[in-house]
Specification:
five-stranded mixed sheet, 12 helices, 367 residues, 8% strand
């Protein structure tokens, strides 16, 4: 099917002044009817994407891909109140679904509902990392790779995953992982401005030295799989490359457990090195400047990611204590329920955040 390309407007706006829509305070998906993915919506001057804007913020797009982005953005404007996600974020969902418009709509709609329900837009402003995580979580951001992508280093082999789960619980770790992904989105925006080219994903370096059977503890694997599922569904196409270093003999067991839950396109971005293979041709120097290779991998860069050691067993909590806290954590959504007796008053507190909008309040009464 031939899809006509929209021509640039007569007076293109400079790239530095192009408006970029915010992703804050997005309401749940509307049930209004929307055009079919096979319909080509008529273009107007406001719908055209400037060529400089595309090359500066979005990267190379074919006429069909540009058409899909415009149509999906128009659909969001018609079916959602308030501000819509940035074009870069919308484009991630299109790429993850091979520009199948209907599949991208469905996935993006589910994510917007999930973000609003759990107030993910405010996560970085409200999340306070527990001191125990600061002391024993062996991961952190570290410079960038040769393509300008933010670089995240995870020393998984040095992390006491069992201890962290037994002390903090699965929900706290999950919230921390979500905060890392939100930070990654911000770093991508910052690096786009710094390097003057579109940077929409990051590189992750995972050091497996020290990985053993302790890391295959069933509740820990369960938590890991849930993290993979949530991140894959709500942060598609944010991982540009995954470098797995010093993979030990136990690694194939871990890979067998988790790989079925990883999207096929994402698995293609994995590069696995055993032993010291990462130091040779085709190793780290092909992807990371020598000045940024961490010292514990033979480079010259000081890295703040520590070898944390084991979490003291004296801090372990019972399963009941963790369950009660986890229920409290994820019950903190914008949706609340209450049982009210006939004729009895019930007080509801509305908290208004700056730059947010109160759309409506709905009460369902069952008599």
């Amino acid at each position: 099917t031939h899809v006509p390309r929209w021509a640039p407007p007569p007076a293109p706006t400079p790239s530095h002044a192009m408006p970029v829509s915010s992703a804050r305070a997005i309401p749940a998906c509307s049930s209004r009817a929307h055009p079919s993915s096979t319909d080509v919506l008529p273009g107007s001057p406001d719908d055209k994407l400037d060529a400089d804007y595309i090359s500066r913020y979005l990267g190379k797009l074919t006429p069909f891909q540009e058409s899909c982005l415009i149509r999906l953005r128009q659909w969001l404007q018609e079916t959602h109140k308030g501000k819509i996600p940035k074009d870069q974020h919308v484009l991630r969902f299109l790429r993850s679904r091979d520009f199948n418009l209907e599949k991208a709509k469905e996935a993006l709609c589910q994510t917007l509902t999930w973000r609003k329900q759990h107030q993910i837009d405010f996560l970085l402003d409200t999340w306070q990392c527990p001191q125990l995580l600061q002391d024993y979580y062996t991961g952190g951001w570290h410079h960038h790779d040769k393509d300008g992508r933010p670089l995240y280093i995870l020393r998984l082999g040095q992390m006491d995953t069992k201890g962290l789960v037994r002390v903090l619980g699965e929900e706290t770790l999950l919230r921390h992982v979500l905060s890392i992904n939100e930070e990654g989105l911000r770093h991508c925006e910052e690096n786009t401005k710094i390097f003057g080219k579109p940077i929409s994903c990051w590189t992750c370096l995972v050091d497996l030295e020290g990985l053993n059977m302790r890391h295959l503890w069933r509740p820990g694997i369960k938590a890991l799989l849930r993290m993979i599922e949530l991140v894959g569904a709500n942060y598609p196409e944010t991982l540009g490359r995954l470098l797995i270093l010093r993979a030990p003999r136990v690694f194939p067991v871990l890979w067998t457990l988790v790989s079925p839950f990883i999207d096929e396109n994402t698995r293609k971005k994995f590069l696995i090195y055993a032993g010291n293979d990462y130091q040779g041709p085709g190793g780290l120097v092909d992807y990371i400047n020598r000045d940024f290779i961490p010292d514990f991998l033979g480079g010259d860069a000081l890295c703040d990611v520590p070898e944390a050691g084991l979490v003291p067993k004296s801090l372990y909590r019972t399963a009941e204590e963790l369950e009660n806290e986890e229920l409290k954590l994820w019950s903190e959504t914008i949706y609340k329920s209450a049982s009210v007796l006939k004729g009895a008053p019930h007080e509801v507190q509305l908290i208004h955040r700056r730059y947010s909008t109160i759309y409506s309040c709905c009460c369902l009464l069952q008599l």
